[in-house]
Write a structure and sequence with these properties.
90 residues; mainly alpha; DUF8028; membrane
């Protein structure tokens, strides 16, 4: 005995290529929306980070924690330069 339901279990679904295409277009749209603010922020972070090197270098890199902080700032600066290098280019 099967019970019939007023609601069907069959729902219209997209085929896999359509789903991937729709998902891909949303990701591309989100990436293009976030690209400009990310480049803006990364560009200015890359400009500001070297000012944080000065106190570390003046006090010296004698301790391991200060040296680690310096290397971390350096890596962040390189990453920010990479992300922000295309900011405000026509």
């Amino acid at each position: 005995m099967s019970s019939s339901s007023p609601l069907s279990n069959e729902s219209p679904s997209l085929s896999p290529p359509e789903t991937v295409c729709r998902y891909g277009s949303r990701v591309r749209r989100l990436a293009s929306t976030l690209r400009s603010p990310a480049q803006f922020l990364s560009f200015w972070i890359a400009i500001a980070l070297p000012f944080l090197y000065v106190p570390l270098l003046v006090n010296g890199l004698g301790s391991a924690s200060v040296a680690l902080a310096f290397v971390t700032l350096l890596v962040l600066n390189v990453f920010a330069l990479y992300i922000g290098h295309g900011y405000n280019q026509n």
